[in-house]
Every structure is written in C-alpha cells, then in structure tokens.
Write a structure and sequence with these properties.
The complex is a heterodimer of chains A (406) and B (147). Chain A is built from 13 helices and 17 strands. The longest helix of chain A is centred in the N-terminal third of the chain and has 21 residues, at 58-78. Chain A folds into two domains: 4-31 and 295-404, Aspartate Aminotransferase, domain 1; 38-292, Aspartate Aminotransferase, domain 2. Chain A has a seven-stranded mixed sheet, sandwiched between helices. Chain A has a four-stranded antiparallel sheet with strand order 13-14-17-16, with helices on one face. Chain A has a two-stranded antiparallel ribbon with strand order 1-2. The two termini of chain A are 36 Å apart. Chain A has helices at 35-48, 58-78, 92-107, 126-135, 152-158, 181-190, 210-213, 238-243, 278-294, 296-315, 344-353, 366-372, 388-404, and strands spanning 16-17, 20-21, 23-24, 86-89, 113-117, 138-142, 163-169, 194-198, 217-221, 232-236, 254-257, 262-264, 320-323, 334-339, 356-357, 359-361, 377-381. Chain B is an alpha+beta fold and 147 residues long. Chain B has five helices and three strands. In chain B, strand 2 (44-53) and strand 3 (56-65) form a beta hairpin. Chain B starts with a helix and ends with a helix. The chains are: A alpha/beta (406), B alpha+beta (147). The A-B interface holds A 18-20, 343-346, 349-350, 353-354, 360-362, 366, 369, 375-376, 396-397, 400, 404-405 and B 2-4, 6-7, 10-11, 16, 41-45, 65-70, 123, 125-126, 129.
Amino acid sequence: MLSKEIRNHFPILDQEINGHPLVYLDSAATSQKPQQVIDALTKYYSEDNSNVHRGVHSLGNRATEGYENAREKVREFINAKSTQEVIFMRGATTGLNTVAQSYGRANVGEGDEIVITYMEHHSNIIPWQQLAKEKGAVLKYIDLEEDGTLSLDKVRETVTDRTKIVSVMYVSNVLGTMNPIKEITEIAHANGAIMVVDGAQAAPHLKLDVQKLDCDFLAFSGHKMCGPTGIGVLYGKKDLLNQMEPIEFGGEMIDFVGLYDSTWKELPWKFEGGTPIIAGAIGLGAAIDFLREVGLDKIERHEHELAGLAMEKMSEIEGLKIYGPVDPKKRAGIVTFNLEGVHPHDLATVLDMNGIAVRAGHHCAQPLMKWLDVSATARASFYLYNTEDDVDRLVEGLRMAKEYFQ
Amino acid sequence: MMSTNKLDQLYRSVIMDHYKNPRNKGVLTDNNVTIDMNNPTCGDVIHLTLQVEDGIVQDAKFEGEGCSISMASASMMTQLIKGKNTEDAVKYAHLFSDMMLGKDVDDSVDLGDIEALSGVAKFPARIKCATLAWKAMEKGVGEEADS
C-alpha cells in the first residue's frame, strides 16, 4: 500500500465533518486535489493569465506555452502518437457527445448498429440513443455475466457487420469491473466498426495506452484524476479526426473566415472552439505530473488492496450485499453495496454524521440499476489518499447504521 | 465513539414508526386520481392513488420505493389528507414545503405526525426525499380539480 503521507498533499482532507475527521470515499464522483494542482491554478491566474494562440505579448506566449505543454503531458500519459490526437474538452461527457455528433452523424445510417453494454454511464448511453433515433439506427446492448463482467463471447454475438460503432466503458463506475478493451476493440475492428472508450473511471486508476488498446476514441475527465473540474480530453486517431467536422464553431478553431464560407485550423485546435479551458488544462497537466510522481502502477495496486480489504471486512456484516466481481483484481477501487433494512440514502446520512462521505443513488447508470434489480445502491470509492483506517471507519459506520435501523 | 444524537434529530421515533409500519400502503381500486412521481437524482419512486369525491379526499394509498424519510413522509401525508377537502390538502402541501425550507409555520395548525419531519430541514440533501409524496399529492389534487 501507498504511504499515509500522500494524504498530506490534499489539504481538503485535513478537516472535521460533523465532529469527525473526514473520510472521503466518493472519488469515483470526483477526486480531491493535491496542493500542487491548486498551486498550478493559482500561479496561472496570478502570473500568466492571458488568451492563447492570439497575443503577440509575453503573457500570451506564457499562457500558450502552458496550455500546449499540458497537451504534451496528456499525450505522454495516454501514449498517443501525436499531440494532434489530444483534444481538450469539458469532460468525458462532452468527448463522447462529440464523437456521436460528428463521427456518428456522418457515418451511421438507417439500419446500422451501435453497440454498448448494460453497465454504461448515462453519458455513454444517451449520445448513442439520440444518434440512433435520428438516423433510424439500432442501439444494441451487450448483456452482462452474473458477476457483472463482460464475456467476449457475448461481445462477438452482439457485434455484427452492420455495427458501425462499439462504445464501452473501461472501468465501471458502479461495479468496478475492468473491461477487456483491447479484445473488444479487436472484435469491433474485425467487423469494420470503430471502438469508442469511456475512460472516465480508468484514467485516474490505471496506466492508459491508446496505441496498445488500438481504440479509435477515448474520452476522460480531469476532475476524477486529481485535476480541476471543467477539463477533459478526447483522444482520437488522427485519420478519423481529420475526416470529422467540428461541432462548435468560432474562436480558437478558426483558420480563415469569409462572408459565406470559412475554414478550420488543423488538429487538434479544429475541435477547440471558443477560448479554450486554459487554466483547466494547466491544472490537468499538474495532476498528471503528480500521478506520475506517485506512479500509476502503485496507485492501481493500492486501490486493489484497499478494495479487497474493504470487501473482506464488509462481507462480515450480515445482510450486506456487494455488487460486481468478487475477485478484487478484476475491479478498480470501487465497492457498491446495499445493507439489508437500510436504504442507501439513510446509510449515506448516517455515515455523513460520522464524517464519512459515500455516494448513494443510481450513479447515473439507471439501466444497470434495472439489471441489478435495485432502485439505488451505496458506493464507496477509494483513491490513492485513502488508507486502511478509512476502511475501518467505513465498516464501523456500517455496523452502526445497521444497529440504528434495526 | 460515534454518537447518534444528531441522527436522532432526523430520525425521530414517529418517523421510524411510519417507515416500519406504513399507513395506507397499497393501491386503491376505486380511485379516480393516479400519480406516479420519481426523484431523478436518487431513484425514489411513488405511486399514489386517491379517491376524490365532492372536493373531499375520501381515501388515499401509496406504493413506493425509497428511503425512510420519503416513505414515512408518504405514510404521514396520506394519513393527514384523508377526509380533508382538496383546498386544505393543498394548503398542507404548501405548509409542509415551508417547513422543509426551515420557515416558521403557523402554530395554530395541527400538524400531527408531520411535525416530526421538521428536522429534515437541517439536512439539505434529504429535503427532496421528504417532499416527493407531497408534490405527487398536490399534482394529483390539482389535476382532479381541473378535470
């Protein structure tokens, strides 16, 4: 496990909530920010703030340099071939919507298929629903195995030569399942479809390598990986991005504007309309620096260990049901559960009164809740700053909730 | 050691009683008003059936899924509005809404069991749980009046 010292990098964790030291177990919703990310934002706004790619003046140069350096950091982080393939966007949701609205509208027609899974987040369902409705295409769902994993056989059964797009989350925000993206990509490609990856829960926790995965698009958000809110990334293969039309026009994406026609900048700026998210990108760059200093492989191992420990200790509580894969190695640091006799909201309130932050509800995955046959669940998600003590506090809180509602 | 003092302000014994032994649980068959409502942020659902005749709520039953606060609130709501005229039922819905916003409510009104829910106002994340049933009732009674 990682050293407890890591906590000291996160000033927000050093506080009491309802008279108890804060235990933050809601990182799958949004992660906390280390001091060096907060400092990077402060430095940018207090020393370098200016618009990018426009000014001749020195501040403009500094801001541009900071913004484009961040792009290079992201490129390295996901092992993209070129920074032209790294587009800054508001978050994973915007990235997935951009692929649906641009690539999807141009390439999906009547009777074509779009394939997703039952475990997707709403952000990887609705863009495809809308596209399918508009084009008369068929939206297909890959069914899940009983333990909440995907079987490649079912992927093969569902993806056909009519399939144009396969879009799957890398890590489930509810089940914690890590999906075999590389293998699914192979199946998609063998059927002539492109592969889109919702990487929102993967980017914070495991080493991403878009070349190895060979996926065509991958979207993720900065705020779940120690970065600021409002910044995210859409990775796309250069030849596909080059074929695609922007969906936002004006500002930074412009090359030449005539009265009746205009041209766009080259990649990646073609997709970055308006004044870009400069501070956000710089903050994300600082977050990547931080995560790399700690080591993504160490973070992943730390989460497996904490989730494993939590599952072990939680299983000892009678009436507690954990959803998703039993093997902690098959899941990221996400443990979703229900405690018999205590509704998840009541549970979350009891835990909050004890300083413990968990999520309760449908986790923006209503089709999955239906699949699980529950209306709501509670979720504890672990990140690099969580410790074994946090697991103990959670288990103690759960026992108290059980007793209280008995 | 964890304390339950603050929790007791929220989960008063009357609430827990309504949660564990809900009044008017079920579905009316001779109803003339049916309302389904959900709370999209948390997944709570309510299916409310009312029998309204001559401007009086003759009977009310609810089915639903949700936390103790939402289900207890639904139980108390049905208990309170049965036999009341629709105007008073709506008045109670507004009064309940004020109570959730932490506003002072008229002392002269007999709140009955719902007074126990006043503590919810101190838990902002839970206010929507408590108001779901009341919103459903207000909508249903309003629709009946318009028809």
